[in-house]
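Our consortium's second objective concerns turning raw sequence data into structural hypotheses that experimental partners can test. To show how far this objective has progressed, the report includes one record in full. It was chosen at random from the queue rather than selected for favorable results. The single chain below, 182 residues long, was entered without modification.
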Amino acid sequence: MYALIIIVAIAAYAVIVYNGLVRSRQMAEEAWSGIDVQLKRRADLIPNLIETVKGYASHEKTTLEEVVELRNKAQAVPQGDVAGRGVAEGMLSQALGKVIALAEAYPDLKANQNFIELQKSLETIEGEVQMARRYYNGAARELNVKVESVPSNFVAKAFGFVKMAYFEITNEADRAVPQVKF
């Protein structure tokens, strides 16, 4: 009789832990889709930005081609490769920074209403990517803790739950503290 109660209790515990792991995995996957949507919005904005800049800075062709190439590489990263997507998007962000910096060298471009609107849209999307990234990393952290913690790690291992990668900045230059000199 006691053995049956213990078996039922263990089975009930395993079901509860399993459901918690499924919930955490679904939260992390949903969070990743939020990042994916924002990155797609940014990728869709890039061609318009490039066309606007081309009219003013035609001799900056290599910079513009680099952005397009990096955009294509970022979109070609296989679904689910969070680390690879982080590297590709980091490189794209750096190249986009160069395009935005071109505006300083071209006052007419800097004053162009279309460029200003595109730049504002890009800044908004970058902020939304950061919010989505924080949400995803929090959801991934919650799943990872459950996958690694005792005793839920036994259930996770038995049912094939694995840790999720964080969406991180991989470019050390982006992490560096800017030097301000007066």
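The partners drew two points from this record. The chain has one domain: 2-168. The mean pLDDT is 87. Both points have been shared with the crystallography group to help prioritize constructs.
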